[in-house]
Amino acid sequence: MTAQPLRLFGDPVLRAPAVEVTAFDDDLRRLVRALWDTMEAHRGAGLAAPQIGVGLRVFTYHCDGAAGHLVNPTLEVLGDEVREAGEGCLSIPDLTTSCRRHRSVVARGWNMRGEPVEVRGGELLSRCLQHETDHLNGVLYLDRVSSDTRQDALERIRTADWFGHGRSTPDDNPNPSPGRGR
Known about the structure:
The chain has helices spanning 26-41, 123-136, 147-158; strands spanning 6-7, 46-48, 58-63, 66-77, 82-89, 92-102, 104-110, 116-122, 167-168. Helices cover 23% and strands 32% of the residues. The chain is built from three helices and nine strands.
């Protein structure tokens, strides 16, 4: 499988809630491979299926020494501690803003073969798991920042060379996701 074009900010697929996976078959395994290859080609910490135009509840991750994928994930927040840190998104190239996220979470779901998976994340992995799960719910990280930060980000997006093009290939998007952790 080769890297797929990324859907960029403004594409409606990024705002639509993804549907649950019901078939753990070869098509799902091909999707996971496409997500992985695309995430790696763009040097991202994670990638959700809607970011390549597929409205299914699947994402891959590779950060903080952890790597894998989750199908139909759910999140549980562990504790009340919240951290603010820079966050970016492959679907919003060349933009990093400060975003508040829970410090620790546990994500539960399944792997591509239908076996249960549990991933506990702190710091960067927690941020990644929350970010990718948000994508599956049609939420972008800019929805979680202050209104002033969001306004500034939207102004920067409107003047970006990529804005309005809808898709990006790995060669078009040399921006590594901040905090890749490899």
